[in-house]
Amino acid sequence: MKKNTPHDEAGNRSKSAPTPVAVLFRARRLQLNWTQAELADRVSKSLPEGEVLTQQTYAAFESGKTRAAKHKSYIAQAMGILAELLQLELGLDPSLPPTLNVEEPTKPVSNVESNAEMLGPLEEWDDKTPLGDDEVEVPLLKEVELSAGSGRVTIQEHATAKLRFGKRTLRRQGVQVENAVCVSVYGNSMEPVLPHGSTVGVDRGKTLIKDGDIYAIEHNGQLRVKLVYRLPSGGLRLRSFNRDEHPDEEYSVPELEAQHLCIIGRVFWYSVLR
């Protein structure tokens, strides 16, 4: 019986269909005119000491032979598509620019290319605007200092601040209405993807950690939004997009308990105002 082979530089295809992330990576790599080996070499230079991405490992993921990519955030960063990767991970299914053709690189027909689509006008609303039939209000979480001057902080739902979501949007993301909350992002630790002032939607029904995904976290009463990884010891690694200024944080199981660090939920949506 003939064995299936990965999708290599010659264009051979494996039996398994590539994931949407693999399709995005291949399209961007072709646009940059990089070989798989060149990409793997560039990514390996940015990895932590002792780690490496081989051409064979990358080829298996790009072809669909393997479904997971351990270093996908590094791969996306090397090709300048970290924001597009995040959109796919959040289930937003972004449209690829015309130059990112999956089958082969395309030559522009003119010096001007469209990279946007008109969706329609914005609708103004305020707290007095009635909810539509397909709308729900999602509360915003906030930090609240406990009484008696103890200095302790807890996280509660804001009494008045709410955001509106379409019921269909939540269903499409597999989010139960009662599990949906919103969190504001402060500081520059999650730039450039989530700059200061961004708002994220959080699914409190999903607290099981998928390495490299984004989660809202309660840490000693403080709200935080980070990339989360599991450690072999049972602890957690918290990572920022802005790693130059905010290095990784690692917490053992005893430290998680002592510092009251727990997962609130997975980020399924985000909004950025510039």
From TrEMBL:
Lineage of the organism: Bacteria, Pseudomonadati, Pseudomonadota, Gammaproteobacteria, Pseudomonadales
Where's the HTH cro/C1-type domain? 25-85
Keywords from the named record = DNA-binding, Transcription, Transcription regulation
Protein source organism: Pseudomonas coronafaciens pv. coronafaciens
Parts of the chain that traverse the membrane: none
What's a single GO MF annotation on this record? DNA binding
Tell me which SUPFAM superfamilies the record gives. LexA/Signal peptidase
Work out whether the entry's keyword set contains Transcription: yes
Which protein is depicted? Answer: XRE family transcriptional regulator
UniProt KW Cytoplasm keyword: no
